[in-house]
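Researcher: Quick one. three chains, 1116 residues in total.
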Amino acid sequence: MDIILKNLPILVVITPLMMSLVVALSSNYITSWIISCLTTFVTFCFSLGLFFELQNVNLISYHLGNWIPPFGIEYVIDKVSIIPILIISSISFIATIFSIKFMMNEISLNLIPKTYCLWLLAIAGLMGLVTTADVFNLFVFLEISSLSSVALVAMGNKMDKKALTAAYNYLIIGAIGATFYVIGVGLLYSITGTLNMSDLADKLPMLGINKVVIAGFGFMIAGIMIKAAIFPLHIWLPSAYAFAPSSVSVLLAATATKASIYIIARISYTIFGGTFELYAIDDLRFFIILLSILAMFAGTIMAIYEKDIKRLLAHSSVAQIGYILLGISLATSSGVASGFIHLVNHALIKGGLFMSVVAMGYYLQKRVTIYSLSGIGKKMPITFFSFIICGLSLAGLPLTAGFISKLYLVKAAYDSEGVWLCFLILLSSALSLIYLWKMIEALWFNPDDNKDKKVKEIPEIYIPLVLIAFLNIYFGIDATIVTESSFSAAESLLKGINQ
Amino acid sequence: MIHEFLGIWNYWIVFILMMIGLYIVIAKKSLLKKIVGLSIFQTSVFLLYITFGKITGGTAPILTSLGDPIYSNPLPHVLILTAIVVGVATTALGLALVIKINSTYGSIDEDEISAIDLVEFHQNFPDRNLPNKK
Amino acid sequence: MMPTDYIYLSILTPLIVFLITPMLNKFSVLRDILGPMGGVISFFSAINITNFVLEGEEVKLTLFNISDGLSIAFNVYPLGAIFGLVASGLWILAAIYSIGYMRGNKELHQTRFFSFYAISIFAALCIAYSGNLLTLFIFYEILTFSTYPLVAHKQNKLSKISGRLYMGILVGTSVVFLLPAIIIVWVITGTLDFAQNGILDGHLDEKYIPFLLLLFAFGIGKAALMPFHKWLPAAMVAPTPVSALLHAVAVVKAGVFSILVIIVNVFGIGFLSETHGSFWLICLACFTLLCSSIIAIYKDDLKARLAYSTISQLSYVVLGAALVSNLAIQGASLHIVMHAVGKITLFFVAGAIYVSAHLTKVSELDGQGKSMPLLFVAFFIGSLSIIGVPPMGGSWSKFYLMLGAVESEYIFVIAVLCISTLLNVYYLLEIPARAFFKNKIKETKVKNYPLMTFPTLFAAILTVLIFFYIEPLKNLTNLITSN
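Model:
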C-alpha cells in the first residue's frame, strides 16, 4: 500500500500505458472493454488519491528513476496540474463506460481490442502531458496522445470514409505543431542547458533579454496552440471530432484540448513567469486576448451556420476554447481562475453534449446531421433531457455549471480590461443561444423523419449520461470545490509573475 | 562577414531543410509527398539539436585516463534518438493512412479526394444542390 | 409558527398540489378540490407573511449558497408581500372558476392542466418572495416553462405556433437581456441580494444607468413593453382560466413586479431619481400604453381586446416605477393589485360568455345583456375599476400615479394618463353598452354554470370592497418607500 501511495504520480500515467498492451492482446471485445473500464477506474482512484494528498502539501515532486532534477525527469503534481488530472481521469472513465455500445456499432468487432489499446494510450499520453515537469518528456507524451488519437479518429472510416482524410489532416497539422514545440524546446535548451520547468524558470531571468529565448517561446506557444486548436489554428478540429467514431469524439472533445490549454498556461506562467516583465509579454498577452475574442466569435458563427451536428459541437468547442484562453490570458488571479473553472465545466458540458448527440444518432447507422435527427428527442426523452441540461449549461443559464464559469469570466474581464470585454463575452454567449436553439428545434420540434426506423432509448448508457448531466447541475449549485481549487491553482501559477 | 555567414553553415542547412519541408507540406497536393515533406521538416530539427550539442574539438563523453578532454554534450543526441522514434511513428502512421485512403478513394491527390467528397455530399443531400446543377 | 415556516407553507402548497394532482387522475372531484384548498392555504400563509412584514420583522430563508455572493434565497419585502397576496388570493377564485370552465367546456387533459396551473402559482409565489436577482431569474424562467403547456393546451396548430412565439419571446429576452444584466450587477457589486435602498449606488457610473435599465426593462419580457409585447396576445389561445390567472395576474404581474423590485431594491429610488436615468423608460411606457390602447379599440376578438388592454395597464405600472418618486412607486404597487382584481373579473366574464353562449367576438355580443345580466354587470364593474372611477379600487392607483407624476415633475405624463383613460372608457364600456342597449343579432342558447358565475361576481364585488379597505395595502406600500 505504501509503495502505491509513494508512486502515485507515475502510477496515473503508467497504469493506462501498461494496460494498453494487455488490452491489445485480449481476444474478446467485451474483455477488452472491461479491462479498459477497470484501468480508467483505477487511474481515476489514483488521481483522487493525489487530490487528497495535495490537501496537506503544496506540491508533490516525483523523481523518475530516482534521478535528482534537473538532471532526471521530474513529475510534479501541484494545485494546478491536479485539475486537468482529475478532469482527464474522470471523464475518460465515464467515456470508457459509455463507449462499448458505440464501438460495437461502428467498428469491426475484431478491431475493438486494438481500438481500446489506442484509447488507453491516448489517455496515458494526456495524463503524462499534465503530470510531467520536463519539457522534452512533455513532447513525447504530446506525440503519444496525438498519434493514438489520430489512429482513433481514423477508426471512424467504417461509418464514413472522410474519417481518413480528417485523421490525415489531424496527423500532419499535429505533427507540425509538435515539431514547432520541439524547436522551441531545443532553443531554450541550447541557451540554458536544462529541460526541467522550474529550473528553466530560475535560469531564464538571469539571461536578460535574449533573442533565442524569445524565439523559443514563440515556437513553443505556436506549437501548442495548434494542438489546443486555438483560432485560427483550429482547422483540424471540426473534422477530426466530427468523423471520429462516436465514443472517440466524446473522449477527445472532453479531454484533448484541455490538456493543451493547461500546457499553454504552464509555459506562459510557470516557465516564462519570471521573465514576464522582462520581455514585455504584456503585449503578447493582449494579442492572445484578441485571438481568444476572435475564437469566441468565429467558433460561434461557424457553429450557427453548420448543418452537421457533430461539427456544430466541434465549432462550439473552438469558441469555448476561446473563453478558456481568454480567462487564462488575462494574467490576473481571478482571470486564470475563471479559465480553469471553465476548463472543468466545459469538459463536463461538451462531454455530455457529445454523449447525448451520438446516442441519438445510434439507431440511424450513419453519421448524423441536424436534419437526420429531427424529432428524435421525443423518442429518447432521457437522452434529450441530458442534452438540454448540458446545452443550457453551455449557454450559461443559472443553476448549471456554465453559469458559474460565465460569471467568473465576466467578472475577471471587467476587473482587468473593463466594460468592452464584458460586453463582447456576453454578446458571444448570447449568439451561442442561436445554435443551441437550432439544435433543440431540430431535435424536439421538427416532425419526425425517421418513422420507419426503430428508435428507442439505450438503457446501457444511462449511467454515464445521467451522471454527467447531474454533474453539470451539481457544479452549478455547489460550485465551491471548483472555484476554490481553481483560485488556488491560479495563485500558484501566478507566483512566478508576482515575485 | 563571410566568415560569420559560413561559420554557422549548419544552421543554414537546418534553416533551408526546414523551409523545404514546410513548403512541401503546404504546397504539394499529393498526400504521400506531404509525408515526405514532414519527414524533411522533422529531420531539420534533429540536425538543429545535434548542432548545438557539438563542441568543436570535443569528444564523446567517455571517461578516459588521457588528461582532461573536452566533451560534447551527449544529451541532445539522446533527445534526438527519442525524437527520431517519434518521427518514425508519425511517418508510419501517415503512410498507413495514405494506403488506406488510396484503397478507399482510389487516389492520393488532395483535390481529387475533395472532389469525390463533394459529389457524394450532393448525392446524399439532393435538396441542397448548388444552383449550377440543374 | 416562525416567519420562515410560512414561506415554506406558502410556496410548498402549490408544489404539493402539482405533485399530487397527477396521482388523483381517476378521482376528478378530489383532484379539482385540491386547487381551491391549496389557494386557501397559500393565501392564509401569505396573509401571515404580510403581517410579519408589517410588524417590521425580517422574513428570510436561504436554501443554499452556490458561491460567494450567489445563493438561492427568499427574503420578503413589502412589495413581494403584496404580490404574494395577489397571486395566492386570486388563485382561490381562479381555481374554482377553472373547475367550472374545464367541465363546462369539456376540455381534454384536465389533469395536466391543473398540475401546471399549480406549478405556475408556485413559480409566481417564489418570484414574489425571492430575496435576490438569481432566485428571481430562476423562478421567472420556471414560470415561463410551466405556463407553456397551458398556452399550448389545445395542441392544435394555432396553439403550437402561439406557444412557440410565447416561449421564444419570453425565454429569448430573458436570456439575451436579463441574464447579462444580472451578471453585470454581480460583477460590479459582488452581490445579487436585494436591499431596501438598492445595491447599485456608488458602484455604477451615472452614464451607464440607462443601458443597464434597458437590459432589465427589455429582459423582463413579461412586462410586455413594446416591442416585446406580441407574446401576450398570442398567449390568448389558451383556455380562459389561464388567460385570467396567468395573463392578467401571475405571469404579467410577475413581469411588472420584477421591474418594480429591480428599480426599488436594486437601483434604489434615491439613486435613480437623482440621476434621471429612467427618463427613456417613462417615454417608452407612455408610448406603449397609448399605442396598445389604440390597438385595443380595433380588436373585435374579446380576449385580444382584453390582452391589449392588459399591455396598456402593465405600462401604468412600469410608468409608475420609472417615475421613481415615492408616490408613483406606491401607485404602481397598488396598481398591481387593482388591475389584477379588475382584469381577472373581465377575463372571467369573457370565459363565462364563451362557455355559456360560445361567443368570442365583441360584435356578436349585441343585446346579449338580457340573457346574461349578472355577467355583464360584473364586466361593467370591472371596467369601471380599470378605468379608475370611484368607488372602484382602480381609482386609488390612478390617483397615486398622477400624484407621483406631479411629484417627479413630469407633467406630460398626466396628459398621457388622461388620454389613456378616455381610450379605456371607449374600448371597455363599449362591450356592456352593446350588450344592454343594442338589439340582439345572434340567437344563442345560454347555459349557466354557477361554478363560473360565483367567482366572477365575487371578483367584481372585490373591486368595490378594495376601495373601502385600502388601509392595510396603504400601510404596505408606505413601507416600500420608507427607508
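Chain C has a mean pLDDT of 83.
Researcher: Thanks, that's what I needed.
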